[in-house]
Amino acid sequence: MKKNSEDMPFLDHLEELRWRLIKSIISILIGAIITFYFVDQIIEFMILPTKNLTYPLDLQVLKVQGMFMIKWGIALMGGIALSIPVLTFQIWKFISPGLYMNEKKYVGPLIVFTFLFFIIGLVFAYKIIIP
Fold first, then answer.
1. Are 11 and 84 in contact (CB under 8 A)?
2. What's 83's DSSP letter?
3. Which residue, of 40, 76, 116, 122, has the greatest Cβ tally within 10 A?
4. Phi and psi (nearest 5°) for 58?
5. C-alpha R_g of the chain
6. 126: burial class by Cβ within 10 Å (0-12, 13-18, 19+)?
7. Can you tell me whether residue 19 is helix, strand or coil?
8. Residues with Cβ < 8 Å from 50, sequence gap 6 or more?
9. What is the mean pLDDT of the chain?
């Protein structure tokens, strides 16, 4: 798959995309498995800011499978969050052959600042918005 992008026919591009998607899905599943192992601690961490409310929250599960689905949803979102570096790398490896050099030089700062502002937004929401 190390061909030049101008030498690759359309079906080779589809094959490249297929393998990038498979690697991305595998990384999300591995991250979800890791997250599911710690899901009880994650739930406790997520409801921790609500402990200081005047009227404490009384969380309820209204369906038989409700808590199971909540845990799987958290595991899936955690898997996506943990696999962001792999997803970013796979997207970059797929689109980089089609970019010019002057376009490629903006990608590094873009990734760094996007990640930094994402973390700042998470901390802001957890420390200021939720309480």
1. no
2. T
3. 76
4. -115, 95
5. 20
6. middle
7. helix
8. 56, 57, 130
9. 87
pTM: 0.79
Six-digit token string for 16: 């490249």
User: Cα dist. 36→26, 92, 101 in Å?
Assistant: 15, 28, 41
Question: Within 10 Å of residue 71's Cβ, how many Cβ atoms?
Answer: 16
Which pLDDT tens digit goes with each residue over 61-76? 888 899 999 999 999 9
Among 65, 74, 64, CA closest to 44: 74
Q: At what angle do helices 39-47 and 10-37 cross, to 10 degrees?
A: 80
83-92 pLDDT, tens digit per residue, is 988 998 899 8
Give the span between the Cα atoms of 109 and 117, in whole angstroms: 12
